[in-house]
Amino acid sequence: MNWRFDVASTIGGRPExxxxxxxxxxxxxxxxxxxxxxDGMGGQRDGGLAAQAVxxxxxxxxxxxxxxxxxxxxxxLCRRADRDIVAIxxxxxxxxxxxxVLLYLSDAEAYWAxxxxxxxxxxxxxxxxxxxxxxxxxxxxxxxxxxxxASRRVDHRLYMxxxxxxxxxPEFGATAIxxxxxxxxxxxxxxxxxxxxxxxxxxxxxxxxxDLAAELVGLARERGGAHSDNVSLVLATQPTSRLRQAWQRxxxxxx
Length: 255
Prior knowledge:
This protein has eight helices and ten strands. By secondary structure, it is an alpha+beta fold.
């Protein structure tokens, strides 16, 4: 199955770009792809190095050996990246950390894993089928039916990340892939500024040659203002024929 990947990122109003995003071909699995997005924790020194360690670990992992069990592969990738980030911290006497969200796309199936509050959204046409759950204090309180804490900073604090002083337990998801399936991977600098429905709406209005990811990242940067966070986005979509695009637009207009 053919995929199109649109990747965009901006430093925002921060002094350093601590986000990383990359798409890898898997040479031992013809046509399979691995999408990686990592967000180095902005409050930690060496956050950029931590996010880069996730990318470097993934680059090495895709050439290691054939992948028989994608979820096992993604889990081991998280554990390797965690160890590499801890090693960086020991060497530099710092405490770097990073989130990550990973998407493995085969011919007919998709598998994903995540740690932290970078997100993956899975769509079928206009319908949001699922999205990852943030590993934050606020999300834990919500699941327990409790009110959020008064401090937004505490509410958004991560209880799980790569390189952190926490038990590492990545969460996983999987799905069969249909003709209308597509995925969004993004850092919190993106989803904190744009509602996911806006992504769907702008995807409808975009032409096939538009750089939609760059447009959306620019909008998130603008809304973040002078203190905008780093913003990163990957869109994994299936190319649509002009005839099919026209038919979809007619269906939307017709209600």
